[in-house]
UniProtKB/TrEMBL annotation:
PANTHER family: ENDO-1,4-BETA-XYLANASE (PTHR43772), PUTATIVE (AFU_ORTHOLOGUE AFUA_2G04480)-RELATED (PTHR43772:SF2). This is Alpha-N-arabinofuranosidase. SUPFAM superfamilies: Arabinanase/levansucrase/invertase. The record marks 152 as: Important for catalytic activity, responsible for pKa modulation of the active site Glu and correct orientation of both the proton donor and substrate.
Length: 342
């Protein structure tokens, strides 16, 4: 028996060691981590995955999340505190179903939680909720942000204080249904109708000074190759799919995102928050599980990537957040991260 126990332990260790890092919390399933430093502490705003029993399909109905929990830690590998329910779908007056990847920001003494959720007509919109505490609880505004649609808001505040929201996701994220600025409920489930045309773009909008609405129009995030040509839909290894993030390094704007069906994290570099962004490469190989979603954070002179995989459950809709170091090379490129070895 002792031998059997030892064998099991050895097998577990071998399994664990095939991952670059371990889940930061294992009591609940968490995904889509947006990490920020507030008051010298790291706060992580993730999706809270649950087994809702909703059957899996191409629309992502099995990602049927109902609330958010915020996590905090004093340092990257420090103890993680789960602050409990920060916002529940029941308290969002306009929400229908599926609370997906959130983000947060701070301005003028208030914390803002941005979240995508389907409205009562099953159309994804982006809402905002406020709190005086980075860990919540948050109170949702009565309506979604006017002019918002699709999923995965990521809010970036530039060094001049202006804040921008990057958002959008194709397939289950519905971006392909927003041709001509109007939602087409009978539109395609994927982007595969337009393989030889320019790929769908993520969106960017400047936020108003009260952080509750868009200030001006929603623009396309232009993603081009080194010759300045737009990436095409059939370029699945490079085109935008979902999970946008923005960070600034050495004065350059890094637009990072998931390529979705090819499961890479990719980056493109620009000179302005609106782009255009020139595709540079991938910086993380596929994680375990279908989705890949990240955020990038600088603390104490080092850069980190928060991401997720499915190490704890082996199920694509029950994910766990992880963190590892991210390194920029002297020429501004990002070193490749291999999240696990099969
Ligand atoms: O968590 C639901 C969705 O899965 C997110 O919105 C996407 O980015 C993907 O991670």
């Amino acid at each position: 028996q002792a031998n059997q126990k030892k064998e099991k332990e050895t097998a577990n260790t071998a399994k664990k060691s095939s991952y670059l890092s371990q889940p930061i919390i294992s009591k609940i399933y968490t995904a889509d981590p947006s990490a920020h430093v507030f008051n010298g502490k790291i706060y992580v705003y993730p999706s809270h995955d649950i087994e809702a029993g909703t059957p899996e399909n191409d629309n992502g109905d099995h990602f049927d999340m109902r609330d958010y929990h915020i996590l905090s830690m004093d340092s990257v590998n420090g103890k993680v505190t789960d602050h409990g329910v920060a916002l529940s779908i029941k308290d969002i007056p306009w929400a229908g179903r599926q609370l997906w990847a959130p983000d947060a920001a701070f301005k003028n003494g208030t914390y803002y939680l941005y979240f995508p959720v389907k409205d009562k007509s099953d159309v994804f919109r982006i809402g905002v909720a406020t709190s005086k505490n980075p860990a919540g609880p948050f109170k949702a505004e009565p309506e979604p942000i006017k002019g918002s649609f699709s999923i995965d808001p990521a809010v970036f505040t530039d060094t001049d204080g202006a804040s921008y929201m990057y958002f959008g996701g194709i397939w289950g994220g519905q971006l392909q249904r927003w041709d001509n600025g109007k939602y087409d409920a009978n539109g395609s489930k994927t982007d595969s109708q337009k393989e030889n045309e320019p790929a769908l773009s993520a969106k960017v909008a400047k936020l108003s000074s009260d952080m509750l609405s868009f200030d001006g129009e929603v623009k396309d995030v232009q993603l081009v190759d080194k010759q300045g040509k737009a990436l095409l839909t059939n370029d699945h290894d490079r085109r935008f799919f979902e999970g946008a993030w923005m960070h600034k390094f050495n004065g350059k704007y890094y637009f990072t995102y998931s390529t979705g069906d090819t499961h890479y994290l990719a980056y493109a570099i620009g000179d302005k928050p609106y782009g255009p962004f020139v595709y540079e490469g991938t910086f993380m190989k596929p994680v375990q599980g279908w989705t890949t979603h990240h955020s990038i954070l600088e603390i104490k002179g080092k850069w980190y990537i928060f991401y997720h995989d499915t190490q704890l459950s082996g199920k694509t809709h029950l994910r766990n957040v992880k963190v590892t170091e991210l390194k920029h090379n002297a020429d501004g490129t990002i070193q490749m991260i291999e999240p696990w070895v099969e």
